[in-house]
Amino acid sequence: KLFFTDYGNAAKVERCDMDGMNRTWIVDSKIEQPTALALDLVNKYVYWVDIYLDSVEVVDYQGRKRHTIIKGRQVRHLCGLAVFENYLYTVNSDNLSILQVNRYNSTDVQSLARLANAKEIRVYQKRTQTAVRSHACEVDPYGMPGGCSHICLLSSNYKARTCRCRTGFILGSDGRSCK
């Protein structure tokens, strides 16, 4: 799945398959400007920052179990969001500090460091990297990903795929080759 935020005409947090199909709103109320988003892959939770409401909130992958992690001046001007173990990590764009927020106890907020210029944050740790299993977009014996001549996108699960073409090409009737 692909998770993303949108604050165009109607602010929302959404999810879809990797090929863009099955687009679903998972949050569409009491939300104004969702900017940063992070996933808890183990427990299947979606965290987001709303810079208009000065809040960090969470829902499960289906949009249920919504609650506010932290709200108010302490989390004003946040950009970027990462989750690791019991903590959320974010960047305060006003004073360029990295904040650590306990996702289970919102009174536990610490400023870890200041940076010259930062807008995003990521946590890289071996335990957060999911094991890769065989999937529908693996390269075939002819060097084509998933048998697609241009682009292979995973679909509703790791065994299904959709072929797409680069700009200026159209997908052939076989659903794999581009012309």
UniProtKB/TrEMBL annotation:
Keywords: Lipoprotein, Receptor. One of its GO terms (molecular function) is Wnt receptor activity. It comes from the Eukaryota. The keyword Iron-sulfur does not apply. GO terms for cellular component: plasma membrane. SMART domains: LY. LDL-receptor class B repeats lie at residues 1-43, 44-87. GO terms for biological process: canonical Wnt signaling pathway. Pfam families: FXa_inhibition, Ldl_recept_b. This is Low-density lipoprotein receptor-related protein 1B.
